[in-house]
Every structure is written in C-alpha cells, then in structure tokens.
Amino acid sequence: MSEDNDKTSYDSDSSKPDKMFTLKKWNSVAMWSWDVECEICAICRVQVMDACLRCQAESKKDIQSKDGACVVVWGECNHSFHHCCMSLWVKQNNRCPLCQQEWSIQRLSS
Amino acid sequence: MITLTRKKANESNGQSKRISIRDKLLVKEVQEMEENLPSTVKTSFPDSNNLSEFYLTVQPNEGLWKDGRFKFLITINEDYNMMPPKVKCLTKILHPNISAAGDVCLSLLRLNSIDGMGWMPTRRLKDVIFGINSLFTDLCDFDDPLNIELSEEYAANSEKVKQRIREHVLQNAMR
C-alpha cells in the first residue's frame, strides 16, 4: 500500500530512483524435536536418545554382543526413561519415579 | 611396573565399573548440592577424593532447636541412586523424628514409603539436604514419631516438652 503512495508521489516528481533490492526467494525454517515428555532420563540424567550411564560405562563391544542397543521405554503415563534404568527401578518399586503412578509399559523404541 | 600391571588387572575384573555409576552421579550431584545449600547448613568432606561420605552440619535459625549445632553423617552406598543415602545424626538430640541412636525418620530416605513421598531415583542429594534441614522446622512431626516417649509427653504437655528441648539444646548442641 505504501508502495502505491510512493509511486504516485514519485510520478508527480518524475524522479523515481532505482530499487535498492528485490526479494527473490523466501525460505521458511522449521524446528523439530523428539516428541517425548522428558528428553533426559530422570534416573541416570543422560539424554534418553543416548545410551544410559550404565551402558556407557561398559565398553561398546559388550553392548553390541548383548541384546542390542540401550532402548527407550515409555510408560502409560507418557514418561520416558532408558529401559535399562527403569527395569532396575521397578524391581524396587513398580511406580513411575516422576508421577508415582503404577508403572506399565506403553511402548519401547526399536 | 608391578603395581601398574596389577592395577590394570584389577580394572579388567569389572569391579571398578559398578562403583563408577554412583561416582559419576555424585560428581554432578555434589556440585549441584553445594550450589544450592540453605543458609543454615554446611557440608564437609573428610576425604576430598571420596564424595560418597560427608558430614552435614545444621544450625537452625528458628524453631525449637534454634542456635543448636547438629552434625549428620551422610553415606552413599554403591547401589545409589536405586537406593537412598544413609543418614545418621551424630549430635545428641531430643527430636520426635530422630532416635537416641541417631536414626532419622524422613520419608524420602525410606525405600517403601506409604505416602508416595519415599525414595525415587529422580531425587537428588540436594533434596536430602533440604529434607534434613526442614526436620528442624516444617517437617518436624510429633504425630509420626521415632522417639515415641517424647511424642507422648508432648501430647500430654507440649509446653513442658518444648522447654525440655530448649534446655537439651543448650546443654548438648550449642554452637
């Protein structure tokens, strides 16, 4: 709208300057993150997408020779932890350490 | 040379691995604890290379134990943080939730607590410190006693017990 106004004013002056620049392309940027309740395992305080503190302490050879990588577990309460960390804790107390609800597994990361 | 080979042999036994989980957690937690200490408490590590045992001194600035100085020993076993730290009160004290032997009744230090306030691996050392510190104020509970005798006396005559506690502090726990 302001451009029109400018045009008219410049037309009347008949001294319109060249454009300084033109917009050729507009790139929008999207950010993403894993859709999990807590990205850090509240038990060992390592990111859930990384191997847990216990698995890190063991050598990588050991992890591969066992039943695969250190996976993430989601409870029915939607809280996530390392499966290794959580299976140690449920032996003591079968409750989610974050919300105290009875712990039952919703899914495991593959 | 001999000691070095022996050291390497010990490391490959895998015993040092399990210790390091607790120690790795402690490195972060001790630092966090030190940065968030309430003004009424101080910590001291008898062995600076060992983070798993330290003293905590509480000097309450209000309440029945005001102006006293109470020392606790905190021990963190290898099964931390699946298991809570062990806390022992080393100073003689008259307190409904601390026994004559120095055992401390604090729900977050219990593994199987009925009220859902018990130990969880999400809790940290700073929570334990806040808990012990609050035993001298908000968390002091005559209705859930470890020192039953004191609690019964309190129910009968609270003023008398308050005075006894004040006298006991003056005699046993002055700064």
Explain the overall architecture.
- Chain A has 110 residues and is an alpha+beta fold.
- Chain A has a domain at 68-109: Zinc/RING finger domain, C3HC4 (zinc finger) (Herpes Virus-1).
- Chain A contains 4 helices and 3 strands.
- Chain A has helices spanning 2-13, 53-57, 60-65, 83-92; strands spanning 72-75, 80-82, 105-108.
- A 3-stranded antiparallel β-sheet of chain A has the order 2-1-3.
- In chain A, a hairpin with a 4-residue loop joins strand 1 (72-75) and strand 2 (80-82).
- The two termini of chain A are 55 Å apart.
- The model of chain A is unreliable at 1-9 (pLDDT under 50).
- Chain B has 5 helices and 4 strands.
- Chain B is an alpha+beta fold and 175 residues long.
- In chain B, strand 1 (41-44) and strand 2 form a beta hairpin.
- Chain B has one domain (22-173): Ubiquitin Conjugating Enzyme (Roll).
- In chain B, strands 1-2-3-4 form a 4-stranded antiparallel β-sheet, covered by helices on one side.
- The termini of chain B are far apart.
- Chain A binds chain B through residues 42-45, 53-54, 57-58, 85, 88-89, 92-93, 95, 97-98, 100, and chain B through 17, 20-21, 24-25, 28, 81-83, 111-112, 116, 118, 120-122.
Poorly predicted regions of chain A are 1-9
CATH architecture of the domain at 68-109 in chain A: 2-Layer Sandwich
Shape of chain A: elongated
| Terminus-to-terminus distance of chain A | 55 Å
Let me know the average pLDDT of chain A: 79
Tally of alpha and pi helices of chain B? 5
Structural classification of chain A: alpha+beta
CATH class of chain B: Alpha Beta
What number of domains of chain B?
1
Enumerate how many helices of chain A there are, as a single number: 4
| CATH fold-level name of chain B | Ubiquitin Conjugating Enzyme
**Total E-strand runs of chain B:** 4
Give, in spatial order, the strands making up the sheet with the most strands of chain B. Answer: 1-2-3-4
* Structural class determined from secondary elements of chain B: alpha+beta
Which two chains form the greatest contact, residue counts included? A-B, 17 and 16 residues
Share in helix of chain B: 25-40%
